[in-house]
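2.7 Reproducibility. Because tokenized structures are sensitive to small changes in the input, we list the exact sequence used for Helix-turn-helix domain-containing protein, including any N-terminal residues retained from the expression construct. No trimming or masking was applied before prediction.
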Amino acid sequence: MRVTEAATGSTVPRRQLGRYLRELRTNARFTVQAAATALEWSEAKMWRIETGQTSLRSHDVETMCRVYGAPDDMKTALMGLAKETKGKGWWHAYGDVIPDGFDLFIGLEEAANSLEEYSPELIPGLFQTADYHRALFKKNRPDLQDEEVERRVQLRVQRQALVTRVTAPPTLRATLSEAAIRRIVGGPAVMAAQLDRLAELNERLNVCVRVVPYSAGAHRGLDTGPFIILRFLTTGDGRNHEPPTVYVQGFTGALYLDKPREIDRYAEAFTVIWDDALSQEDSSALFRQIAKEMNGP
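Resulting structure tokens (single pass, no recycling of outputs):
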């Protein structure tokens, strides 16, 4: 059994470990409640472990494997994987400004091989300029002190490093509604600079940003709302190191979907939205045209 993982940060190893332990539990015919009772843990702790929300000590993994009757080679491999879950990604330095649960997304984003995003209202976070992001916080979170706003802006800047990193940058495909690029955030100058940034990013080999124009009418994105599909590297025989995941952010929390049927539904929706969008070249031309209009004569 091979459980090594080269991805940055601890999120992917945690999710891998949780998935293996969940499989062991179900194969041993333990319910979550029965396993929690046998281990003298709460069901909430079991859920956090099996969904990759927390790291584990090797001793705890050894105990779970014993209760589930796992073979020795599996126990040894999972105890080794538990050690990898202790590693911290760069984003942990910003723990004071990361919303609850969002550190899981940042870890997945950092490890992803490709991302596909539909954003109907705002410029996607990986593409936002510092001024655009700053303007969003000042408008929507007036309670934040300037220092905290700047910490959040710096977190966004750090996240964006993966777009331009030299070693294996992920493939990024994004579709934006025309409303997202015409909505003025931070004033005309800030928005014009943001649109110029989108046009510049569209020149990168690993980035493609396309606009769904108003003329597309009632397209599929009106049903789905915003979402991100994250995909990860595969092994030599085509298996996923980590299953694809759909991230759906809501006002009071986020959903992480990884069932094959859910992935297929969102992938099909993204393809339809993508096909309704302008070409990459036409989208870049529209970015520059609107930026010019905002800059004035």
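The chain has two domains: 11-84, 92-295.
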